[in-house]
């Protein structure tokens, strides 16, 4: 059978890895796909960079991506440009030209996925995106196909390697966030502009995509709650450790009776839980299904060949079903497209006030009689039950003469809106001397 012809848009780290993996493993890949997979065109503004990757004249190199889209010989366009700008235009143009699309672009799908999947359905082409979530870990395949028998209950994961590296270093070396961020940039783990990683946006893009596939709802990045790690203090990492927890940036999406939770924020995780032991730049995702129970997926979430592994897997899937009736292919968001919107109306993404979780609180107070009693009374009045309390001499005081102490409180599960009410009252107490730190806690069981 004639090899499928692929055009790469962008040949940076992942594009280079895709080229290398396809060349190195081409025989086995062709045996699996039932036909060869050939990158016959590469578009990159930096033509010299492309020439350094493309060995011999196996592929035509151009600096205009639209030359690939216009070529009738090209079956699949692989978009590795990133972002929502030109990448969106090119993906929609490729679909309009009848090309199948493979993309690693989580931002594009989390924000514009509904429009893109709709356009693809109308043209009868596939949009595959295994590389968009957790790099080399086949989590899309697992959620969409392997776990298809299940009613998924929740998904929680470490889905940003940069922030996991930073948190691991903060804990291991007792360093502050700013110091470790600089080190991560020096080592190439963090981008020169790390905003999307450290503010939780990248993880939220990925959580949004997993939420859609897990629960059969449209991608709704605008409804995701996003909080990064920039405000995490070393003291909280140390106190958490003393209480038997580690702090991780988690992407969480959970089905409840009233809707779907979709949130990214730092989280206390029991130190013995597998997720707590995912260190450095590694990723891991836990999925809870009603039939299978708990499953865990672990691996590299970024890098040239791990991400290429996912891109090539998508190319193989496309090669296998290129000639199939579109109705017989796996739906892009796991659920038949027609069922997505109606199910979405029935299952809204919940506002944060309605999510239910437990909490770690650190409250800097004047060390005087009755303070702890007042705080616990205000929590009790809001219906919040305390799990553990720790009192530690403040690591640094604000220079006043008042004796200060840190109260660290773990609560049982409560509605976030009730916690907001209680904390507003506690924050207003004269003996509370600094902004209260609140970190959500997940037992993941
Ligand atoms: N910047 C991401 C991370 C990888 O640090 O995990 C690509 O999403």
What does this structure look like?
The protein has helices at 13-24, 26-33, 47-53, 65-70, 86-96, 106-123, 139-146, 161-173, 177-187, 195-198, 201-215, 234-242, 304-321, 337-346, 371-381, 416-427; strands at residues 4-9, 37-43, 60-62, 76-79, 100-103, 127-128, 152-158, 225-226, 245-255, 260-270, 282-289, 293-300, 356-366, 386-393, 404-411, 414-415, 437-441. By secondary structure, it is an alpha/beta fold. The chain has 3 domains: 4-138 and 304-343, NAD(P)-binding Rossmann-like Domain (Rossmann fold), CATH 3.40.50.720; 139-300 and 345-352, 2-Layer Sandwich (Dihydrodipicolinate Reductase, domain 2); 354-441, 2-Layer Sandwich (Alpha-Beta Plaits). The radius of gyration is 24 Å and the shape is elongated. Bound molecules: L-homoserine.
Short description:
The protein has 445 residues and is α/β, with parallel strands linked by helices.
What is the CATH homologous superfamily assignment of the largest domain?
NAD(P)-binding Rossmann-like Domain
Instruction: Report the average pLDDT across residues.
Output: 95
Mass-distribution shape = elongated
Distance between the termini: 49 Å
CATH architecture of the largest domain: 3-Layer(aba) Sandwich
Return the CATH topology of the largest domain: Rossmann fold
Number of helices: 16
Radius of gyration based on Cα positions: 24 Å
Structural class comes to: alpha/beta
Bound molecules: L-homoserine
| Percent range for β-strand residues | 15-25%
Q: Outline the low-pLDDT stretches.
A: none
Please bin the fraction of helical residues. 25-40%
Number of domains: 3
Strand segment count: 17
Largest beta-sheet characterization: 11 strands, mixed
The top level CATH class name of the largest domain: Alpha Beta
């Amino acid at each position: 059978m004639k090899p499928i012809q692929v055009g790469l848009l962008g040949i940076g780290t992942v594009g280079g890895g895709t080229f290398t993996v396809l060349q190195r493993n081409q025989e086995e890949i062709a045996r699996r796909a039932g036909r060869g997979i050939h990158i016959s065109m590469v578009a990159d503004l930096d033509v010299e960079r492309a020439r350094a990757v493309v060995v011999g004249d196996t592929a035509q190199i151009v600096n205009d991506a639209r030359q690939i889209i216009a070529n009738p010989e090209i079956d699949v366009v692989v978009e590795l440009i990133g972002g929502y700008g030109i990448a969106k235009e090119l993906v929609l143009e490729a679909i309009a030209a009848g090309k199948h699309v493979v993309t690693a672009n989580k931002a594009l799908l989390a924000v514009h996925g509904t429009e893109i999947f709709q356009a693809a359905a109308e043209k009868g082409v596939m949009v595959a995106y295994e590389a968009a979530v957790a790099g080399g870990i086949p989590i899309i395949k697992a959620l969409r196909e392997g776990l298809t028998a299940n009613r998924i209950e929740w998904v929680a994961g470490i889905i940003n390697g940069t922030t996991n590296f930073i948190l691991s270093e903060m804990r291991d070396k007792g360093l502050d966030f700013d110091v470790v961020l600089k080190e991560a940039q020096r080592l190439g783990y963090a981008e020169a502009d790390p905003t999307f990683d450290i503010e939780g946006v990248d993880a939220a893009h990925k959580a949004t995509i997993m939420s859609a596939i897990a629960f059969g709802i449209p991608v709704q990045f605008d409804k995701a709650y996003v909080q990064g790690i920039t405000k995490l203090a070393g003291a909280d990492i140390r106190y958490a450790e003393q209480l038997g927890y580690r702090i991780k940036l988690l992407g969480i999406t959970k089905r409840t009776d009233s809707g779907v939770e979709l949130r990214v924020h730092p989280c206390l995780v029991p130190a013995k839980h597998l997720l707590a032991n995912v260190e450095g730049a590694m990723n891991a995702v836990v999925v809870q299904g009603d039939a299978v129970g708990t499953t865990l997926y672990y691996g590299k979430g970024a890098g040239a060949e791990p991400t290429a592994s996912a891109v090539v897997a998508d190319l193989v899937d496309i090669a296998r079903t290129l000639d199939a009736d579109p109705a017989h292919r796996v739906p892009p968001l796991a659920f038949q497209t027609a069922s997505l919107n109606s199910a979405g109306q029935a299952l809204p993404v919940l506002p944060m006030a309605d999510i239910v979780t437990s909490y770690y609180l650190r409250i800097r107070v004047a060390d005087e009689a009755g303070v702890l009693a007042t705080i616990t009374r205000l929590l009790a009045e809001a219906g919040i039950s305390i799990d553990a309390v720790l009192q530690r001499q403040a690591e640094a005081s604000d220079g006043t003469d008042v004796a200060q102490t840190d109260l660290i409180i773990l609560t049982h599960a409560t509605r976030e809106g009730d916690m907001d009410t209680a904390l507003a009252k506690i924050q207003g107490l004269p003996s509370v001397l600094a902004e209260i730190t609140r970190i959500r806690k997940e037992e993941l069981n």
